[in-house]
């Protein structure tokens, strides 16, 4: 009986140890839900992609690129875009240059009119030095304008003042202030023969631009402010408030604002 008891005790102990070992072996399996097929799935997917790449033709894999026709189509599209963009860009640039010259003339004229009022309403004594002191951001000269920031000045008449600015677009812009409409016949560009020279001296605002004969320009003597454009004259010496000349493609003046030829 003693031996049988010991045997039974050993069997129970062995059974308990086996249960503990089985439980310890099964615990990780319960924590890892992935099956063997799921673990192999990325490997199978990579293998499938590799097989697909190997099945591609060697010529397709190594010679892939743009064809000559595709490149020609791209170049044609670029050429069309450039053909549209370049004229637009040049037009905007020319317009910006003209606007800069006009703005500088307006600024100079404001200072000239202020000097006119403070000088007992006469332009006598309003000189390059006077305007340079009033507006140092601009250059004033008693000669031809060489740029849109260089203002040619003529106030020798005393009754009126003529300002000129040469634009990079090869246009010369003039602004004349003649408060009373009177002038001295000996002072250019206001002369008694103004109306007889190529029609440019007519006292009626020009509704449309003209192309007069090359030569001197004589400005109208209407009271108030006159705006003049000489278009297409690349000779900077012509853009002179003292002795204006015309060798351009068209000419126009108005009393309401700068012309747009």
Detailed description of the structure:
With 261 residues, the protein is an alpha+beta fold. The chain has a domain at 78-254. It has helices spanning 2-31, 36-55, 58-62, 68-118, 128-134, and strands at 139-141, 150-154, 161-166, 172-178, 215-216, 224-231, 245-246, 250-254. The strands form 2 sheets. The protein has a 6-stranded mixed sheet with strand order 1-2-3-4-6-8, with helices on one face. The N and C termini lie far apart (133 Å).
Topology:
Layout: H1 2-31, H2 36-55, H3 58-62, H4 68-118, H5 128-134, E1 139-141, E2 150-154, E3 161-166, E4 172-178, E5 215-216, E6 224-231, E7 245-246, E8 250-254
Task: Tell me briefly what this model is.
This protein is α+β, with helices and mostly antiparallel strands and 261 residues long. The protein has helices at residues 2-31, 36-55, 58-62, 68-118, 128-134; strands at 139-141, 150-154, 161-166, 172-178, 215-216, 224-231, 245-246, 250-254.
Question: Main beta sheet: strand number and arrangement?
Answer: 6 strands, mixed
- For the termini, the CA-CA separation is 133 Å
The ordered H/E elements are: HHHHHEEEEEEEE
Mean pLDDT: 77
Overall 3D geometry? elongated
How many strands appear in the DSSP assignment?
A: 8
Q: What strand line-up does the widest sheet have? A: 1-2-3-4-6-8
Strand content: 5-15%
Low-confidence stretches: 7-11, 26-31, 192-200
What's the gyration radius in Å? Answer: 46 Å
Q: Structural class of the helix and strand makeup?
A: alpha+beta
* Count of separate DSSP helical elements: 5
Helix content: 40-55%
């Amino acid at each position: 009986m003693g031996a049988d008891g010991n045997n039974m005790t050993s069997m129970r102990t062995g059974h308990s140890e086996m249960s503990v070992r089985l439980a310890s072996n099964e615990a990780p399996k319960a924590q890892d839900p992935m099956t063997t097929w799921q673990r192999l799935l990325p490997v199978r997917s990579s293998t499938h992609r590799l097989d697909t790449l190997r099945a591609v033709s060697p010529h397709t894999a190594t010679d892939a690129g743009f064809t000559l026709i595709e490149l020609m189509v791209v170049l044609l599209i670029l050429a069309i875009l450039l053909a549209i963009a370049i004229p637009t860009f040049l037009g905007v640039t020319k317009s910006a240059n003209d606007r800069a010259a006009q703005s500088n003339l307006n600024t100079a004229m404001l200072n000239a009119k202020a000097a006119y009022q403070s000088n007992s309403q006469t332009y006598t004594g309003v000189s390059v030095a006077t305007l340079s002191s009033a507006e140092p951001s601009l250059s004033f000269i008693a000669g031809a304008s060489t740029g849109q920031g260089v203002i040619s000045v003529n106030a020798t008449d005393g009754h009126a003042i003529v300002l000129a600015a040469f634009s990079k677009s090869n246009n010369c812009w003039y602004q004349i202030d003649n408060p009373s409409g009177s002038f001295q016949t000996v002072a250019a560009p206001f002369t008694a023969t103004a109306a007889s020279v190529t029609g440019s001296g007519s006292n009626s605002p020009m509704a449309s631009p003209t192309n007069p004969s090359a030569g001197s320009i004589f400005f109208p003597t209407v009271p108030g402010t006159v705006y003049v454009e000489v278009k297409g004259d690349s000779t900077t010496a012509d853009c002179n408030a003292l002795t204006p000349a015309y060798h351009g493609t068209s000419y126009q003046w108005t009393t309401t604002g700068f012309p747009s030829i």
